[in-house]
Design goal:
Blueprint (H helix, E strand, L loop, with lengths): L1 H12 L52 E6 L13 E7 L4 E6 L5 E7 L2 E6 L5 E6 L4 E4 L5 E5 L5 E7 L7 E2 H6 L5 H8 L3 H11 L4
Antiparallel strand pairs: 1-2, 2-9, 3-8, 3-10, 4-7, 4-9, 5-6, 5-8
Length: 208
């Protein structure tokens, strides 16, 4: 009988009613390695779980003719700690996302409008490449370099979902050519011609 009483007490103490359902980001607090600290429960509202910033098309008047807009913990505090976020990808004709990676997130992309080529490169240096039409879905595994290109004759639109509430993005071209890494170091490590390197640095804002 005593055992049943103890079991009942423990089940009450650790019941789902006492569990933390969510941890809405306190954007006024610093962000740590595992995300933001939790906003006080009494300050949480439904607006913390809603974001309307992906409704309209983004401005694709840029070098890549594309724009990526996230709905991550900074824009949608309710996803903090839940391991998920979203992104809208708009492409003008010929638009593309440069080769990039998300070091801590897998991405699933669904094409809503237009035709894209999506691809990624495995750690074994194998290329996985596919033409994607409206309704097609492609997964880009965590940490692998990947890209999308609009190969159609009209605007393209896709939405992505990532397995992190605050996914980082690492662009290869900016990592090489948008900083002050000396040209001779890039030449030695990439086998590119110095004039090419300096031209790309000029386009992307790098020096050295």
């Amino acid at each position: 009988m005593m055992f049943l009483q103890i079991l009942f007490t423990l089940s009450f103490l650790f019941s789902s009613s006492n569990a933390l359902d969510f941890c809405v980001a306190d954007l006024n607090a610093p962000q740590g390695p595992v995300g933001y600290s939790c906003k006080k429960a009494e300050a949480v509202t439904v607006e913390d779980f809603v974001f309307s910033g992906l409704r309209a098309a983004g401005n694709t008047s840029n070098l890549k003719k594309s724009v990526l807009r996230p709905a991550a913990s900074n824009q949608l505090p309710g996803v903090n700690g839940l391991g998920i976020s979203a992104v809208r990808l708009d492409f003008a004709v010929g638009g593309r996302t440069a080769m990039h990676t998300h070091p801590e997130a897998t991405e699933v992309v669904v094409v809503i409008q237009g035709t894209l080529v999506g691809g990624f490169i495995s750690s074994a240096n194998k290329v996985y490449l596919k033409s994607l039409k409206e309704g097609d879905v492609m997964v880009f595994p965590q940490g692998l370099m990947h890209f999308q290109i609009n190969i159609g004759e009209s605007q393209a639109l896709a939405f992505g979902c990532l397995s992190s509430a605050s996914p980082s993005v690492y662009f290869m071209d900016y990592a090489w050519f948008a900083n002050d890494l000396p040209t001779h170091i890039l030449q030695e490590t990439t086998f590119l011609d110095p004039d090419q390197i300096k031209k790309l640095k000029g386009v992307l804002g790098g020096t050295g």
